[in-house]
Amino acid sequence: MRETSNLPHTVSTSQSKIILASASPRRRELLAQLGVTFAVRPSDVNEDPLPNETPLETQQRITRNKAAVADADADAGAWIIAADTTVLIDGEMLNKPADAAEAWAMLRRLRGRAHEVQTCLVVRQAEAEAIHIVKSQVMMRHYSDAEIAAYIASGDPFDKAGAYAVQHPNFSPVAQISGCPLNVIGLPLCKLRQFQQQSFSCGVGNVPCVDHECARTFRTAATSTDYYPK
Q: What is the DSSP string of 20-31?
């Protein structure tokens, strides 16, 4: 985790404008749970890894670029929030599957195993910037080949990192999450908490968040099909 020491620890939302540098509807819905007013300003940046980059270096570069693009057109003093979430297994990033064969390969590889979901979160104001790396351990259940086939046939995996949705109502591939479950969705509110004066909790339906207080309260994702890693 990297933080600049001159970035304030809290933001008064009545005095500062907040900009979410993301087109993700999941991140918009999650940020709205804080009860803050914000603008959405997607940043279309190249997300392809560069030669010899580690997954973490790729994420940091992408997320900082997202924040910088949004900040370039922002009002003075605005707070910029940018994030990038990836699925990691055996040290490899699993991005969105290009076709059914790749989705099959990803879902079989993840089946019955633990993997890591990692989000790089950037909060920026003027020249000050804080970078957080948030990690959650995800254990997948032993779903069948028939379940994989039905899920792929639904068309749902193809815009999801790792080819799965955390709370897809029919597939439901996740057995357990250790760490912040909203990190798996793509916006770890537990880290944004320190920049916002209102307290809150988080959690994802009936998937237990083993090491986090958020499991007890925030339940909106349990009935939503819009909460996916991205």
A: E----HHHHHHH
**What pLDDT score was predicted for residue 194?**
62
Q: Is 211 among the residues known to form the active site?
A: no
CA distance 140 to 137: 10
Structure letter (DSSP) for residue 221: G
CB atoms within 10 A of CB 127: 9
Number of neighbouring beta carbons within 10 Å of residue 112 = 11
Which are the contacts of 100, defined by CB distance < 8 A and separation ≥ 6? Answer: 152
Q: Three-state SS for 13?
A: coil
Name the token pair of 134: 């948030």
Catalytic annotation, pick one of 48, 84, 90, 211: 84
pTM of the model: 0.77
Strand partners, 96: none
Average pLDDT over residues 142-170: 91
Instruction: For the chain, list the domains and their CATH numbers.
Output: 2-223 (3.90.950.10)
Give the number of other Cβ atoms within 10 Å of residue 222's Cβ: 14
Helices (H), 117-202: 145-153, 181-185, 189-192
**CA distance linking residue 128 with residue 2, whole number of Å:** 12
Q: Higher confidence at residue 35 or residue 110?
A: 110
